[in-house]
Specification:
The chain is built from six helices and 22 strands. The chain is α+β, with helices and mostly antiparallel strands. The strands form five sheets. A six-stranded antiparallel β-sheet has the order 2-3-4-5-8-22, with no helix packed on it.
Length: about 350
């Protein structure tokens, strides 16, 4: 029988499973599906809207049009990431999948994926699709004189293939308006378990008391507009990707023993491959050297847990005790400690895909 090539011109069909939006394309004998990492509906026919994070997925399903499947290949951006070859089991259907890291590609790059299937009846067919990446990093540093003015830019320098937006002191209004647009966020400022100061503290005192700061609450409180409001806006908008990594470099940003931080919830840290890094004690602003080591390690493909441990092995961060004497403190991870900035989730180092 001569080889036939069947090219799909079917429209995309939306489906929802497991709390995440999925997309599916189907043709004779094969289908492709995946998720766009956000949970929202309704969707449209432009699947997927985007890929974001280190846990993006593509799933391929092959069904023999005649006989059994002899081979199937799944590729991303021209690289075969998973494949099947019949070894005598003669399967009439099978599935192959891949998890990949969007930051392997530049922000807003179109990622093309393809599923190719051959069967024993001499049929060959394939499906293709594409979706853009959204990798966006936002970094802010307080300008009251207590903080290293270059730390935000240094942190963002480790966000390879991210669109980077460093700031030397954005106001509360600017921070709130920017927050929904990014996938990674860092700020060095003053804070507590309920929120953090903006990047451009009012007045000349250093540091200012909380009541004199432009304070950004984790929860929306009148007359302030808090982070929760902005992240709610983010979650409800299908054009906006979720946060994968948030680092609130401020005192008690991860709670203080008496009160748990609401920051993780406010930033949508509610599933795997999402985390918030903060402190559960008062901290010294000189800990920026430790912070820089953490982000350098993340750029090497370490998990957040391993990046924190490796940074600490070269010097403990510190803060004041009740008598204002320096004592060692620990960075605190809320959410998934296996979160990565670069490199596929669950993979080794900077490997960008994982069958």
């Amino acid at each position: 029988m001569p080889m036939r090539t069947l090219i799909s011109s079917e429209p995309y069909n939306a489906g929802e499973a497991g709390g995440t939006i999925s997309y599916t394309v189907t043709t004779l004998g094969a289908s492709l599906s995946g998720n766009s990492t956000i949970n929202t509906s309704p969707w449209d026919l432009n699947w997927p809207r985007f890929f974001s994070g280190t846990k993006c997925t593509i799933n391929g399903n092959a069904v023999a049009a005649s006989g059994y499947v002899t081979s199937a290949q799944l590729s991303i951006a021209g690289t075969t990431v998973n494949q099947y070859t019949d070894t005598g089991t003669h399967k009439t259907s099978l599935s192959i999948a891949d998890t990949f890291d969007s930051t392997h590609f530049a922000n807003n790059a179109l990622v093309t994926y393809k599923m190719t299937v051959q069967d024993s009846g001499g049929n060959s067919y394939y499906l293709t699709g594409q979706g853009p990446t959204l990798n966006k990093g936002y970094g802010v540093v307080n300008t009251d004189g207590d903080f290293n003015p270059g730390i935000a830019a240094a942190v963002l320098g480790n966000m390879i293939n991210y669109a980077q937006s460093p700031s030397a002191g954005d106001s509360k209004a600017t921070i709130n308006s920017n927050l929904p647009n990014y996938t990674a966020f860092y700020i060095a400022t003053h804070g507590n378990s309920t929120g953090f100061g903006d990047g451009s503290i009012v007045g000349g005192q250093s540091p200012l008391p909380y009541y004199q700061q432009h304070f950004i609450a984790y929860q929306a409180t009148s007359p302030d507009i808090g982070v929760t409001n902005d992240i709610t806006v983010k979650a409800a908008n299908p054009n906006l990707p979720p946060y994968n990594l948030v680092d609130i470099d401020a005192c008690n940003s991860a709670g203080n023993g008496a009160a748990a931080s609401t920051g993780a919830t406010s930033f949508g840290i509610n599933s795997s491959d999402r985390a918030l890094l903060g402190w559960n004690a008062e901290e010294y602003t000189s800990n920026y050297a430790w912070v820089a080591r953490v982000w350098n390690n993340l750029a090497l493909g370490m998990t957040l847990k391993d990046a924190v441990n490796a940074a600490t092995s070269k010097g403990r961060p510190s803060g004041p005790d009740a008598n204002n004497h320096p004592v060692p403190i620990n960075g605190v991870i809320l959410g998934d400690s296996a979160t990565k900035l670069h490199g596929v989730y669950g993979g080794a180092g900077l490997a960008w895909h994982l069958p």
